[in-house]
Design a protein that fits this description.
alpha/beta; binds pyridoxal-5'-phosphate; 12 strands; 14 helices
Length: about 400
């Protein structure tokens, strides 16, 4: 009666959501303070005061036309401010015309893939990867190609990447800092990816677009700098959102920015606005376009996340977990204490610990912890980790 494909996908649905729902169930049973939920990447912090001030200004300022339909690409003022901020980091000639406002990064990725892909063209991702990419590529008629992980560093395996490129490759997705590992790919790695792409483009006579999925680009530690993909790749398309950096995940606001170096970029921009409309988004939420335009240059305070990273990394490695120290995002990706990460995560539920198996990110044998949660929950969870470790000694 319903779509067979969707009904069959339901039984395979996201581990993140499954563990989150398990957390809700356990909280009702034992009380929220007895449950240690590391499942969802939902920032604990409230949006910065500048966001609230901007909201008040627009809502209370009685601006006429604020709540109407607009150009499918979004308000020119917000797009121009985003373009100017990207221009500073990349030195490219960018303006409002290079930007389309979107319904979060998730909406942006679907719009980009819709605008780029012919049936069964290939999109390369590096494992471990944000599992929703499978659906986004499939939604838009493409075929996902997964480059296996290099678990020693969780940087992309470049040899495997080169082998994965075929004449059907249309795009790659780079997610830096990475969800689920929190690893920041180095500038050297990114430049080597560029060399491989240029070589393969010449060999096959194709164009490969680089989609930079970067909702965590403002959340970095140790004074590390994220390489600007607009500066490095000719065919760069940025997909970003304010879900994580400004704590606005529920407001669904993000953008796409395409490099001015892309051939026929005007056609691409028209196609992106068209796909924003025809996928049913129509346009990004209007009020929040104004707000992110106002706050695009505010300094984000990451000290709360850094404190959590330091505390958890130290506690878990002292307990014997192997883990690459993350330099961005708000995730840890330790090795499970047994090969079967799903069995391991199920065992953790006994101690009210909600973790997400690495299998859900194309990387079995590991598990993800999302530490954008209250600090006292993290402190209280350590005893539960001790019991879990004891079980597998
Ligand atoms: C890597 C990655 N890309 C995209 C998204 C989607 O984010 P948004 O809320 O902006 O749609 C997420 C959300 O967790 C993510 O982790």
């Amino acid at each position: 009666m319903f779509s067979e494909k969707i009904v069959s996908n339901l039984s395979n649905s996201s581990w993140i959501r499954q563990m989150f729902e398990e957390g809700v169930r356990l909280s009702e049973k034992y009380g929220a303070d007895k449950v240690y939920d590391y499942s969802l990447g939902n920032p604990y912090a409230e949006p910065p005061v500048e966001v609230i001030e901007s909201l008040k200004k627009h809502v209370l300022g009685n601006e006429k036309g604020l709540h109407k339909y607009m150009n499918n690409a979004g308000y020119p003022e917000a797009r121009e401010k985003i373009a100017q901020s990207l221009k500073k980091e990349s030195n490219l000639e960018l303006c409002a015309k290079n930007v389309v406002m979107t319904v979060g990064a998730a909406g942006g990725l679907n719009v980009v893939l819709k605008a780029l892909l012919n049936p069964l063209e290939e999109v390369i991702v590096f494992a471990p990867y944000f599992v929703e990419y499978n659906s986004y590529v499939d939604n838009n008629g493409g075929k996902i190609v997964i480059v296996p992980p290099d678990t020693s560093t969780f940087e992309p395996d470049l040899e495997a990447f080169e082998k994965s490129i075929t004449i059907k490759t249309k795009a790659i997705i780079i997610n830096n800092p990475n969800n689920p590992t929190g690893v920041v790919y180095s500038e050297e790695t990114i430049k080597n990816i560029e060399k491989i792409i240029t070589k393969k483009e010449e060999e096959y006579g194709i164009t490969i677009f680089v989609i930079s999925d970067q909702p965590y680009c403002e959340i970095v530690y140790d004074n590390i700098k994220i390489p600007s993909l607009l500066s490095i790749f000719k065919n760069a398309i940025i997909v970003n959102s304010f879900s994580k950096s400004l704590g606005l995940a529920g407001e669904r606001i993000g953008y796409i920015a395409a490099s001015s170096r892309i051939e026929d970029v005007e056609i691409l921009m028209t196609a992106l606005a068209y796909c924003n409309r025809t996928l049913g988004f129509v346009n990004a939420p209007g009020l929040f376009q104004m707000v992110v335009g106002d706050t695009i240059n505010i300094k984000i305070d990451n000290s709360g996340y850094e404190k959590r990273r330091n505390y958890l990394y130290e506690k878990l490695t002292n307990l014997g977990f192997e883990c690459v120290k993350p330099q961005g995002a708000f995730y840890l990706f330790p090795k499970a204490l047994i090969d079967d990460d799903i069995a391991f995560v199920k065992a953790a539920v006994k101690y009210n610990l909600l973790l997400v198996p690495g299998s859900g990110f194309g990387c079995p044998g590991y598990f993800r912890m999302s530490y954008c949660v209250k600090f006292d929950m993290i402190e209280n969870s350590i005893a539960a980790f001790e019991k879990l470790v004891e079980e597998f000694k």
